[in-house]
Write a structure and sequence with these properties.
Low-confidence stretches: 1-14
Strand content: 5-15%
CATH superfamily of the largest domain: NAD(P)-binding Rossmann-like Domain
Largest sheet: 6 strands, parallel
CATH class of the largest domain: Alpha Beta
CATH topology of the largest domain: Rossmann fold
Order of helices and strands: HHHHHEHEHEHEHEHEHHHEHEEEHEE
Number of strands: 12
Radius of gyration: 35 Å
Number of domains: 3
Mean pLDDT: 80
């Protein structure tokens, strides 16, 4: 764990030797061009001027190409010595640092990680390794689906590495980081950061890089959903909305969990139906509910296609599979539903109280 954390922190430092090397090369090039131009301005041929400057900044000491006879030439030569030699010393140090950084990357296995990422194709990119990202990675890993995590926090990257996940440390809002996880070859992007603005920006960038990418985005505020869809997201997930809906389902379908848990076959059927956008739910008909005493056909008509009844378990132990439209629902019947659309609205139909029927000025029920 400690070694992985060290490797993650070290990765952010590898860019420093490269920046130092490039900066020093630019400095030495400027000194070289300026010195050559100064000698040429004094009447030297450009070939002699370039040769003199090269000898000076590399401290070879072969001697002067031409006599340094004027104060101007002496000033130019001294400046070339000081600036040129200093630049070469810093350049040498930068090269040493660069080679050391390369060896350190190999030692920590960071190059191997990036090599594995480069081989990915048709994979899933997870932006963010927070609470939702961790659970998502766990499910994908269990399913054997290839994925890579893009996260900026070194501690979370170390955690992902410990779990054996492919990961890249970077800012997901930057195109360079998205390209590093091969977003151009990815199949799905799941941006699950707790920052709506960041998720919108990531969606825009990813859609620009890969027009065929399927994007699933997380939204905190309900008003963000339209922005994410407009930015290019295919689906938007609102965790707070899902949580509230799940609680409502637990209230409306209290018998479902026990029913599914008692039957492996029913559990497999529920998962199979879920792939087609259908859900298997168990509801108990209340003593005085809106559906108590009505026929199966009438109940399904009231549901307007939101569900259809596949099994009725009466309180006396009798069970009816694939009941006909004329079968009546009785109080305390356990009714197995195949639900499509909103499970909440379908369950609410059964839990609603019976409506009082009016005949003239008299109410019944």
């Amino acid at each position: 764990m400690a070694q992985d954390r060290t490797g993650s922190d070290a990765a952010s430092l590898f860019a420093s030797p490269a920046r130092l090397l490039v900066g020093t090369l630019i400095f030495v090039a400027i000194v070289f061009v300026a010195a050559v131009s100064a000698y040429v301005a004094a009447g030297w041929p450009i070939a002699d001027a370039a040769y003199m400057v090269t000898l000076t900044i590399f401290s070879v000491g072969y001697g002067e190409v031409r006599p340094i006879a004027t104060p101007y030439l002496r000033v130019v030569t001294i400046a070339t010595m000081v600036l040129g030699c200093t630049g070469m010393i810093v350049l040498t140090g930068a090269l040493v640092q660069m080679f050391a950084a390369i060896q350190l990357r190999r030692l920590l296995g960071l190059d191997r990680m990036q090599t594995l990422i480069e081989r990915l194709n048709g994979h899933v990119v997870i932006c963010g390794f927070g609470r939702i990202g961790v659970q998502l990675a766990k499910e994908l890993h269990a399913a054997g689906t290839p994925f890579v995590i893009l996260e900026r926090d070194g501690g979370k990257i170390a955690e992902a590495q410990t779990l054996g996940y492919l990961c890249h440390r970077g800012e997901a809002t930057e195109e360079s980081a998205l390209r590093a996880v091969r977003i151009d070859r990815a199949k799905i992007l799941a941006t699950v950061l707790p920052d709506d603005a960041a998720n919108v920006f990531i969606t825009l960038s990813a859609r620009n890089i890969n027009p065929d990418l399927e994007i699933i985005a997380r939204g905190e505020a309900p008003t963000t959903e339209s922005k994410l869809l407009h930015a290019g997201a295919d689906k938007v997930v609102l965790p707070t909305h899902i949580g509230a809906e799940r609680i409502a389902e637990m209230i409306l379908y209290p018998s479902t969990a026990g029913f599914i848990a008692d039957s492996t076959e029913m559990g497999q059927m529920k998962r199979g139906l879920h792939e087609f956008g259908l859900e298997l739910e168990m509801v108990v008909v209340p003593d005085k509910g809106a559906m108590t005493g009505v026929t199966v056909g009438e109940a399904e008509r009231r549901g307007r296609g939101a569900f259809f009844i596949v099994q009725i378990d009466h309180a006396n132990g009798k069970s009816i599979q694939h009941p006909g439209e004329e079968v009546r629902l009785e109080a305390q019947d356990q009714v197995l539903l195949v639900v499509r659309g909103s499970r909440v609205s379908a369950g609410a139909i059964f839990t609603a109280p019976a409506q009082r029927q009016r005949t003239g000025r008299t109410f019944f029920g």
